[in-house]
């Protein structure tokens, strides 16, 4: 073999090794400063003698100077010392913050929660620091969270309570005026109607076949309130009845806007944006509403991970809460929760079946990572 041929062979081998090294998922986690990789490995830098967590905010090292270790002990045995910035040998401050906020939530959910100052003192924080941590991880203030929990409790109590007033005080309110401030907006109806189990509220609906089985669309005078997929009409109608147990359900002929929704399922490239213009009548917690708005901002043909959505909302530790908000989305397609995926790109659960989620993404030009492997 000539010297020129040897040089070409060596260059090709080096290029292949470089591509394989750069595509190492651990290196990709370091580049992205992925907190989800914390605890899986640490990386050490030959030129500094320091080892770090995958998400360390220190200056990004050159790839050729990096070594990976499964544990802190392995990195220390190799002669590296822990980084003073991310402190890999200590408890992750992010996880500690999440545990603190979780403990605060449990205290706020008590029937007679202590004042915020007392909660902060019990958790070893100042009220200001607790307020800031709570807003960062939950997306709302402690007071907003407490009010939301009270409203949810009152909403659950209303249909079976002897009176609206009884439901209010059983939920933990100190006065009825606090409840009535936001009751109409949160319940979607007057409290007396909620007490009657939403009796008399009119919900129209229509069912029609589509390529994903059957689709049911329900609406009120304010907009679409339910979109669901299934295989049998009676099962779809039962699901709608469970959601609106005392409402007056009325099967109607197909209005024109349903064609827009179905066309968005069949040909999303041409009708996806038109479907987003359909008015909605959906209600949820403040956090759910924020997640649903963010989902509607995901462009056609793109996906977002639950962690990315949480960071967009200013609550980087709330990826699981984002997943729950996606799971409770009442209007499939119109709020495109099928565009939310796991950090690996693989598909998570979908209320109407993972197969439908996969097909919707395929039609939108986004092939799931699990299919590309």
Secondary structure elements and pairings:
Elements: H1 3-22, H2 25-32, E1 42-45, E2 50-52, E3 66-69, H3 72-77, E4 81-82, H4 93-108, H5 116-122, H6 127-138, H7 142-157, H8 164-171, H9 176-187, H10 191-195, E5 202-210, E6 213-220, E7 223-230, H11 233-243, E8 248-251, H12 256-266, H13 268-276, H14 286-296, E9 304-305, H15 306-312, H16 319-327, E10 340-341, H17 354-363, H18 369-372
Helix pairs in contact: 4-6, 7-8, 12-13, 15-16
Assigned CATH superfamily of the largest domain: Homeodomain-like
Q: What distance lies between the first and last C-alpha atoms, to the nearest angstrom?
A: 37 Å
Instruction: Output the helix-strand order.
Output: HHEEEHEHHHHHHHEEEHEHHHEHHEHH
* Multimer state: single chain
> Largest sheet, if any?
4 strands, mixed
Across the major sheet, the strand order is 3-1-2-4
General shape: flat
CATH architecture classification name of the largest domain: Orthogonal Bundle
Mean pLDDT, all residues:
76
Which residues sit in consecutive blocks of at least 5 with pLDDT less than 50? Answer: 13-20, 157-162, 164-181, 183-198
What is the β-strand count? 10
- What's the number of domains? 4
Helix content: 40-55%
Strand content: 5-15%
CATH C-level category of the largest domain: Mainly Alpha
Q: State the secondary-structure class.
A: alpha/beta
Number of helices, counting only DSSP H or I runs of 4 residues or more: 18
Cα radius of gyration in angstroms: 26 Å
* CATH fold call of the largest domain: Arc Repressor Mutant, subunit A
